[in-house]
Amino acid sequence: MKILHICKKICIFASKFVTMKRFFNLMVCLCACLCMSAEIKYVFYFIGDGMGPNQVLATEMYLAELDGHIGRNKLHMTQLPYSGQAATFSKSNGITDSAAAGTALATGSKTNNGTLGLNAEGDTLTSIAEQLKAQGWGVGLLTTVAIDHATPAAFYANVLKRDDYYNIGLQLVKTDFDFFGGAGFHRPRPRTGEWDNLYDLAEQESYTIASGLSMGEQKMGEAKKMILVQATDAIDRRKEGSNFPYCIDDRADSSRLNMLTDFAIRFLGQKNERFFLMVEGGMIDYACHGRDAAASIQETIDFDDAIGVALEFYKQHPDETLIVVTADHETGGMGLGNSHYTLDLQVLQHQHCSAWVLSDEISKLYDKGKRKPKWQEVRDILEKQLDFYGSVSISAEEDAALQTAFKKTLKRGGRGAIKTMYKNINSLSGDALALLNRKAQLGWTSYSHTAAAVPVFAIGQGAEQFTGWMDNTELVPKIMRIVEGK
Which option is the CATH number for 42-335+455-483: 3.40.720.10, 3.30.420.40, 1.10.230.10, 3.40.640.10? Predict the structure, then answer.
């Protein structure tokens, strides 16, 4: 719009001093200039794993309620000027998994559930990251889960089974991508056999391994390529790195996604004139698999904060940057409202830990010996972590239901009775969070994925193409056409 405004002023000014013929030639030149879009040098691709429209809206309405009003406190992503929705079904299933959805978002092609980087016939697909790397771009992949998990792996791996983690890792170290960030390798060594450790193999391929942002900053200048994993006292190369802690469980500042995104931008920018960065908010999906609304909201905020970092970069390079935000699928079938036309999302502020931590705390009571825990001990945990019997009032009927769930957990020795995608939780934890969700007037239809359409948001050069109803396979072709100036 600024360019058009400037051109209009030039035309008005020029018309006063040149002949009609010269004015016509001038207009032709200006039109030609307008038709030439600026060269795209920076592409950001944000993927909120499991983030459907209601995950976004719940977060905005939760923040509004905390501010004392009904409505929306807009996130960065919903303030982007262009938006649409994308269907997510896979080649084999009406409801996709992350591997097939990730492949669609990375390559623009449908495939079967469970498959990464191959089409339904088994042919190898080339991701946008691989295409741009071949054209001389810097490439970075950042996630809050393992770097060999389905979504990031879709940008570099070609395997029939998404759980073939060691083989996926072998392909990762051969990519020559500039930057990987996340929770490390899910399986740095295979389960059986004498094989090389993936961290060692990565170093042989000139990757610098950094544990946490502090070490990353120290090694940034000397590193040609980097794998940045979550901070520990020392990298345990035998340990599986599955995911970051949830934000609600006091995630350390060094593993906040916005700080990691800032680091990735600086690392890629100091070594490349052009770069592509994919950022995944992977723990949104984990939370929704466990029907953990409060954790999901905090992960969505964390993901949106990372988008805010990219937007600050965009403001410095508006004519050279494209930012696209979407999700691979919706998880949990989150519904806003279950009775009486009311929401009380602010009650979720009283939840102080994830379902995982709550379940673990309760289960530990059973690990202290043969003595069975008493109800009061468990109630103390519910008071501390969910503010039950305090800010969150519990009726006599609700108390009786919680004690019934406690007895179920007692029979199982504290072990998980509710199976979720990534971790089982005990009956009491599941029932307690379900009660808190009901008080928030929020519901779920599944412990798994749904076929709901996912949001698409965009800003920058060519962003107007990301509007209306789309298929998830359309995003990569659109990005590539914009990059190629078509």
Answer: 3.40.720.10
